[in-house]
Amino acid sequence: MRGGDFRIGVLGSGNGSNGEAIFEACARGRIPGQVVLVLTDVADAFIQERAQRRGIEARFIGPSRFKTKLEPELEEQAARMLRDAGVQLVALAGYMRVVKAPLLGAFAGRMLNVHPSLLPKFPGLRAWEQALMSGAKVTGCTVHFVEEGVDSGPIILQREVAVRDDDTPESLHERIQRVEHEIYPEAIRLFAEGKLKIDGRTVRIIES
Ligand code: GAR
């Protein structure tokens, strides 16, 4: 088992509520580690401010010419910054670009993502809205290992959220996010404690 000095890097593009949940779980000792670096591809993303308020280094990577990915040179720069900070796990927290080889290769098997649906259902953007439009009665959220492809990779934890008849996209997303804030720190704890074993497409949780 790894110690309390487990080093986490967080990548986010927006509000950063999942980032905040991870910072808080570290501060409370629920995750036996600390967030040592936050990177964002959006210059004024609120996640930066959340990090700085807690004394966590936050840096902007960009600007990028693309919308859905970063240039390889920018990904290499991000990988270098994360490596230099001694990061052992990268947590994507509302990071809205597809991660490509330079960054993914540097953290193969050591990058997690949270997604607001029960994958493999509703990958991509605004998954809560996709669920609502489809008429689904149940949706939820997923934490998974990142691999090439959008919102794919071995699933670590999932939890259901019921869709209510009077839900709006906002109300449904809000309830899903509350659950994300529980299962994401939990998945990171399991990783940090060496309790996740990937067996083909299946992630086994070894809690002894
Ligand atoms: C979260 O709901 C996260 O699951 C979603 O973006 C939101 C970011 O919120 N991510 C994706 O849709 C990735 N495909 P946050 O910035 O408040 O954590």
Question: What's this entry about, in short?
Answer:
With 208 residues, this protein is of the alpha/beta class. It contains 6 helices and 9 strands, in the order E-H-E-H-E-H-E-H-E-H-E-E-H-E-E. Glycinamide ribonucleotide binds next to helix 1, strand 5 and helix 6.
Describe what this molecule looks like in 3D.
This protein is of the alpha/beta class and 208 residues long. The protein folds into two domains: 1-108, Formyl transferase, N-terminal domain (Rossmann fold, 3-Layer(aba) Sandwich); 113-208, Formyl transferase, N-terminal domain (Rossmann fold, 3-Layer(aba) Sandwich). Helices cover 34% and strands 25% of the residues. It has six helices and nine strands, in the order βαβαβαβαβαββαββ. It has a seven-stranded mixed beta sheet, with helices on both faces. A two-stranded antiparallel ribbon has the order 8-9. Helix 1 links the parallel strand 1 (6-12) and strand 2. Helix 1 (17-27) packs parallel to helix 6 (169-192). The longest helix is centred in the C-terminal third of the chain and has 24 residues, at 169-192. The radius of gyration is 16 Å and the shape is globular. The termini are close together. It binds glycinamide ribonucleotide. Glycinamide ribonucleotide is lined by residues 12, 14-18, 93-94, 114-116, 127, 151, 177, 180.
